[in-house]
Amino acid sequence: MTATVRAATASNARILSSLQPPPNVVVVGGTSGIGRAVALSIAQHCPSAHITIIGRNESAAIDILPQLGSNPKFLRADVSLTSEIRAVTKKINAVDILVLTEGILTMTGRTPTTENIDNKLALHYYGRVLFVQELLPLLRSSPNGGKVLFVLDSINGNPSKINWNDMALENTYSLSSAANHALSFTDHAIQYFASQPENTNVTFTHAYPEVVRTNISDNLPFWARFPLKCSLAIGLGVTPEDCAELMVYGMLGTEKGYRYVDNKGRTVTKKIPLQEDMVAKVWEHTSRRISSN
Ligand SMILES: NC(=O)c1ccc[n+]([C@@H]2O[C@H](COP(=O)([O-])OP(=O)(O)OC[C@H]3O[C@@H](n4cnc5c(N)ncnc54)[C@H](OP(=O)(O)O)[C@@H]3O)[C@@H](O)[C@H]2O)c1
């Protein structure tokens, strides 16, 4: 463990163990990888936290639940679908910390869900925003202040490459445009949420985990997966456990409003400022998309 991770872990332990009442935590994508490690980290620092993980893999959830403190819960949902997100959020009656780590790595082109949203964009962007929107009333009333963490990529979004004429990429989809829309829209969305006066008790953090040794590449074709797995095996990237501490550290360090943090949980300084009218435009598009199903 590096000195940076050690310092982040100590800080997380200090903050999380002193929260009263213990926090209600929801980790979407908590059955695997970074989300799983975030859930375990919070449980370790605050065993009386109420931790709920959301995903589809019930057997993975059963394996991890006994390690999630005294009040663990698993809610099964396919979170690529707005209908399932609406249903699963109705089962949650308190949340202080919402962590969004659901995602996939794929080289397949546009793959519409049954709701006609591209699967990757649904997981990496639209569904995440819907989780926030549905849970905001609970986050706003959090006694210690609500916290939302988006684990995606706060560094590489490029607003100048957004296709404003095809924001959902129904006609001009490419892997790079889908990646850029998910990252850039997340940057815009957290700025929008933080600008709303009713959300002053909630912070929004978009974090970049860097390369993390998880199984996210398992569905890539062999020729793409093999070199990546070899690089990971010889030391590329960080462990999910170290990444989780740094992501949680970044989230807890956001004191108000929104913040973009890097792979060490530090503020990203070289960020192109977003224009207010573009923030409004992204929000208008997003709210239309997530309410139309
Ligand atoms: N690993 C990296 O190097 C890296 C780098 C940069 C960014 N990221 C981003 O960080 C996030 C987490 O990555 P990871 O490496 O931790 O991935 P991972 O180990 O593959 O975990 C992904 C999680 O997403 C959940 N998920 C995927 N599709 C779902 C669906 N349709 N419904 C419900 N849950 C679903 C999975 O749950 P179930 O299997 O239970 O459905 C799993 O818990 C991703 O968004 C990824 O893009 C990762």
TrEMBL record:
<dbReference type="Pfam" id="PF00106">
    <property type="entry name" value="adh_short"/>
</dbReference>
<dbReference type="InterPro" id="IPR002347">
    <property type="entry name" value="SDR_fam"/>
</dbReference>
<dbReference type="InterPro" id="IPR052228">
    <property type="entry name" value="Sec_Metab_Biosynth_Oxidored"/>
</dbReference>
<dbReference type="InterPro" id="IPR036291">
    <property type="entry name" value="NAD(P)-bd_dom_sf"/>
</dbReference>
<dbReference type="GO" id="GO:0016491">
    <property type="term" value="F:oxidoreductase activity"/>
</dbReference>
<keyword id="KW-0560">Oxidoreductase</keyword>
<protein>
    <recommendedName>
        <fullName>NAD(P)-binding protein</fullName>
    </recommendedName>
</protein>
